[in-house]
Amino acid sequence: IYYYLPHLREYEDAIFPNVIFGQQRTGVSLVMGIPTVKREKQNYLIATLHSLLYQLSEEQREDCVMIIFVAEVSVHGKDSLASFPREVQSGVLEVISPPASYYPDLSKLEKTLGDSEERVRWRTKQNLDYSFLMLYAQPKGTFYLQLEDDIIAKPDFIGSIKSFAAQQSHDWMVLEFSQLGFIGKLFKSEDLPLIVEFFLMFYKDKPVDWLIDHLLWVKMCNPEKDAVNINALFSHCMSEITFLYINQQDKDFGKMLLHKAHNNPPAKVDTSLKIYKQYTLEKVYKGQDCFWALAPVAGDYIRFTFLNPLEVEKYLFRSGNMEHPGDKLFNTTVEVLPADKTLRKELIHNGSKFNYPATKDGYLKIGVFENGTAEGSISQAIGRIEAIRLSVSSDSPVWAILSEV
C-alpha cells in the first residue's frame, strides 16, 4: 500500500480506521461491507439496515458482521445507528471511517474514459474506499459480501448465499448475487489482499467493477491460445472466466423485478443522458431491461417519438428499482408534442389554450415526477401525439434508472 499510495509514508496512522462503533467481532462466516455517502435528497441507510437485519435469525446474527464504511465526514454514522443499540452492543454492526490523510491529492487526476473531472475524482475515491473497507474486513471472517447503502434484502439471503457457496465444486473468486455494478459480490476473505492490490495498482484508471473484470482476465486468459483468431481467444477467455466468476440469481428475484415490461407502441427513442453499460433506453421501452444513466443535469431529456402519431390516454414512468431505489428522476416534467403542426405553432406564439403550460418548442407539460414516479391521464382534446419527452430541470445528485414505461 505504501508503494501505490506513497504519501502514506508521511502518515503512519492513515491506514488505521477511526472506529466510531464496534466490538471488534472476528471469526464469523460472513462479513458485509456497506459504504455510505452523503445524499442530498434522502438517506437510505436506515431502511437498508432494517431490511438486512430483519431477515437474520439469532444464529445468523451471531455469525456475521456488518461494517458501515462512512466515506465522508459529513455522513451521520452515529445518528444512523441510534435505532440499533442491541446490534451495536452485540457486535453485529460496526461503523468505521478512514482518516482524511488516507486519501492522496485528488484534485489533479488525469481525465480518462471520456469522463468529467468530477466523475474521475468520484470513481477514484470510491476505489480507495472499497480498498480500505476490504482490508479492514479481511481478517474478520471467511467470506466478504460487498453491499451498498440503498438495497433491499431477500428473505434468508444469508442462508441462500452460504448454500450457493457450498455447492461450488471448483475454485472461484467471485460469486455474483446481483448483476448491477459492484453490489452483491461475494469474495473469499483470503483473496481480498490480492484483489485490493490490483485495485490500488489501477485505482485512478477505471471504475471498480471494470477492474474486477480485468483481474479475472489477467488470471484466466492465455494470449497464446489460438491468438491468431481473436474471436476464438475471446471465447476461450470467457469460458475460463466463468469458472472464477459465477452468477446466481433466484428465479423469482432477478431482472424481471428490476424492470416491468409493457407492450408499447412502435417508437424511436433518444436521450441526452450518458448511458451506463448495456442499460439502454431501447431496452426499457421494449420491456427487456431497465434504463440506467449517469446523474442527469439541467436540460437533459429522455424522448419517445412515435413512428405513427397516436392518441394516448394514460402514461406511467417509474424510476428507481429494488436494487437502487435511490436512483430516481427528480425535478423532471412529462411533456407531449401534439401531432397537429398548426396547434404547435399556436402554442409557440400564443401559449397554451389547454390547462397545461406550453414550452418554447411546442410541447405541453402534462405532469411531473413525484417520489420517482410520473403517471396520469392526457386530455383527448390535444388530439394525436407525436412524441413524449421527460425533461430534467435541475442537476441530480444521483444516477437515474427508468424501470417502467
From TrEMBL:
GO terms for molecular function: acetylglucosaminyltransferase activity. GO terms for cellular component: endoplasmic reticulum; endoplasmic reticulum-Golgi intermediate compartment; Golgi stack. InterPro entries: Glyco_transf_54, MGAT4, MGAT4_A/B/C_C. Residues 267-404 form the MGAT4 A/B/C C-terminal domain. It comes from the Eukaryota. This is MGT4B acetylglucosaminyltransferase. GO terms for biological process: protein N-linked glycosylation. Pathway: Protein modification; protein glycosylation. Residues 2-231 form the MGAT4 conserved region domain. Pfam families: MGAT4_cons, MGAT4A_C. PANTHER family: ALPHA-1,3-MANNOSYL-GLYCOPROTEIN 4-BETA-N-ACETYLGLUCOSAMINYLTRANSFERASE-LIKE PROTEIN MGAT4D (PTHR12062:SF10), N-ACETYLGLUCOSAMINYLTRANSFERASE VI (PTHR12062). Keywords: Glycosyltransferase, Transferase. The gene is Mgat4b_0.
